[in-house]
Amino acid sequence: MSSLTLHDVRFEPEGARNYLTHDFGALSWLLTKDHKRIAILYLFSITVLFLIGGFFAVAMRIELLTPEGDLLTSDTYNKFFTLHGIVMIFFFLIPSIPAVLGNFLLPLMLGAKDLAFPKINLLSWYLYIIAAVMGLYIIITGGVDTGWTFYTPFSTQFSNTHVFGVTFAAFIVGFSSILTGLNFLVTIHRMRAPGLTWFRLPLFVWAMYATSIVQLLATPVLAITLVMLMVERVLHVGIFDPALGGDPLLFQHMFWFYSHPAVYIMILPAMGVASEVVAGFTRKKIFGYSFVAYSSLAIAFLGFLVWAHHMFVAGISVYSAMIFSFLSYFVAVPSAIKVFNWTATLYKASVALMTPMLYILGFIGLFTIGGVTGLFLAAIGLDVHVTDTYFVVAHFHYIMVGGAVMAYMAGLHFWWPKITGRMYPEWWARLAALLIFAGFNLTFFPQFILGYLGMPRRYHAYAPEFQVLNVMSTAGASVLALGYALPLCYLIWSLWYGRLAGPNPWGAVGLEWTTSSPPPQENFHETPVVTWDAYDYPAMMKAVGETQNV
Amino acid sequence: MMLSDFPLWPDQASTVAPGVDALMTFMCIITGTVSILIFVVIFYLAIKYRRTPENELAQDYEPPKALEAAWIIIPFFIFMFMFVWGSWLYFRIQRVPDNALDIYASAKQWMWKFQHPSGQREINTLHVPIGRPIRITMASEDVIHSLYFPAFRVKADVLPNRYRTMWFQATKTGRFHIFCAEYCGTEHSGMVGWVEVMQPTDYQKWLAGGTEGSLASQGEKLFQKYACSTCHTNDATGRGPALIGVYGTNVTLSNDTTVVANEDYIRESILNPQAKIVKGYTGIMPTFQGQMSEDDLLKLVAYIHSLGTQKATSAGPPSSLPSAPPPAGPSTAITQQNKGTNP
Hints:
The complex is a heterodimer.
Chain A: H1 26-30, H2 35-63, H3 74-110, H4 118-140, H5 154-158, H6 163-190, H7 203-235, H8 248-282, H9 289-302, H10 318-345, H11 355-378, H12 380-386, H13 390-420, H14 426-453, H15 467-497, H16 537-544
Helix pairs in contact in A: 2-3, 2-4, 2-15, 3-6, 3-7, 3-8, 3-13, 4-6, 6-7, 7-8, 7-9, 8-11, 8-13, 9-10, 10-11, 11-13, 11-14, 13-14, 14-15
Chain B: H1 17-48, H2 66-94, E1 101-108, E2 111-115, E3 121-123, E4 125-129, E5 133-140, E6 145-149, E7 154-158, E8 164-169, E9 174-180, E10 193-198, H3 200-208, H4 215-225, E11 250-252, E12 258-260, H5 263-271, H6 294-308, H7 332-341
Parallel strand pairs in B: 1-5, 4-10
Antiparallel strand pairs in B: 1-2, 2-3, 5-8, 6-7, 6-9, 9-10, 11-12
């Protein structure tokens, strides 16, 4: 029980090679099978795509400063919100935590040398890159204007833009996601260190497990749906277009059967990061560990049963609307469990308000607001009024940016010393965290009010009475943009000038903190044997005697 | 800045709007209280138990496990209360009252066309009387649109393959927004208009201001123009079934199933006659898919609807669409919606 110790760490002799210095040259990166290097490849690629997606957001927010459509043409605006959605969802949020942090950490947390299928791991990055390059090519050559939802028959018969290319890119990036999920599932089942039983796993691993199930089961449905869309658009086989004998609602059912669970692909890993960070910066075991673990599985399962809550006004029957409303309230329960458990963990803890913890406390608050506004949308009678308005835009940004991106930032800062071996500058990082929190709320809270006032989403020009709130939103977006620019600068700076981190700068428990930073290529010099529960801080503290001051 | 330029709550101008606003207020109070409570607790705990040299290690203490049950069970019951309230409200929004005034709408990229039973047509403007339920039957000519009246708190997607209905009863005179709420292409944000809610007397005056004849009588002209009348004669001798008294009844098909002759069935029978052939007839009717606008279709449907109120033995078609409740009754909206799930 008490054999978890920091003195197990094998400090690397001076000049010893780690995964970054093991090999040099472009090919050593492009042909690597090391999960840690692949994580870095993903980190680099999704950051580029995040900046592109962010550019579209900034352009839209500037356009929306005035009620008239004066900066961009309608077609350009429509392409921008479409591309913002596609880039941010398929090319940033879905791969963000799993492909960067999950890739890097899963084998480390499990005490393994690598993922189960290292070559498939590299393949999934190449699929991502092929799709991303296709996407960028399409952006440069004219873009697409269907909305990221590709609703038929607009996408199959009416849009004159690059629908085929973009759906094909989304189809390919889907396989990247499927392969990552498959790889993680097998790794978690087969490659845990001796003694690392299921209920000794860190909650991040549980979250990745639940995420992988969703990726593996839901993404193929998206692939099928997109193939059918392409077949109808190119070969004019009637599937969704009524003029050809198809049914447009069929597309919506199939699309949301993937795209609702996709929300959980984005938020479940964020919840996993939250659990790790809360435990690390309270030095406590997460309260109700098994409830938090099982709630991830419950969310993954229930997430498959609620897709038609996106369609309450689309023309489904009154009774099916009721059933989907009922099930949507069900899926809110496990999310509530997590929020309460994280909060309860703070009780009688030793709370260090370092940057990752600031992000996670922000995450809990914003995720709570995003979650409870989901309850508004699940109330069908209320949804009739607020669906397809800015209320929905605000709601899902609170989940995806306030939730997923905040947690991604938290995780990036938390594990940055492990990934790079160096500390980020704490003062700047705290400033950025506060800017992001404030800017985010100023951007998106006014949109709840705009939505209830009735401003529809995807509007290039809008009624003049909505202007004040839109100006507030744009002001917030500029603070938010500044908040995101800061980490980009100081994290790069820290690669050269950051303080050396040492193996465990936070005094955290978890196998990843028992190896050096950055870890050696084989992760551990000898396979760890686990005899303790997750987050067993009392045992660790006893063993170490005293902790490092952080 | 004037406060009127900066509204925080939308106009409340229909019978269902206060109900929606009441639920909204309830949701804001409950979720706002819970959220603020969580924030306060987090702040309090994070400050009280912040890491200090005396508090380097967390205390080895766990809150009682009963808490876990409490925050599963209590939220669940609150959620169920929200579910019941939301569903009850939804049924209210969906169920069309008996004495509704029918208006027909067609949507196309990027305009709303409304037709009144007495024949008036308008684009991106809709005149309606106050205090009377208005039922809108609508279809799209191209992509999916969504007809949204924020002041009435109602919205429904408009589909290209079948009719959908929505209703409202205005409680305030004045001008209110009409928005398209489902993204429909380039000028989506320009697909907007105004609904003018008028006193009934003003509405009558407005109606009297010029017309090309009622919708049904325009439909009758089209019935002649498209030569429907050569086959669909008034007696059983025609090559097509007689249409008098058919609307709203059960029709037996050639495969011995039955179908209700509602707007959707009539529309389908015009566009795709081979889909459901009436028993005893052969499928010789040509398809009118792509040859008839949604406007004309609505007129023909209105005409056949008007025939439906006649006895089968009646001498001839009437010349106007009665504004009496349609034979299909108040549950039409729900039956039509049910069709949607099994296309």
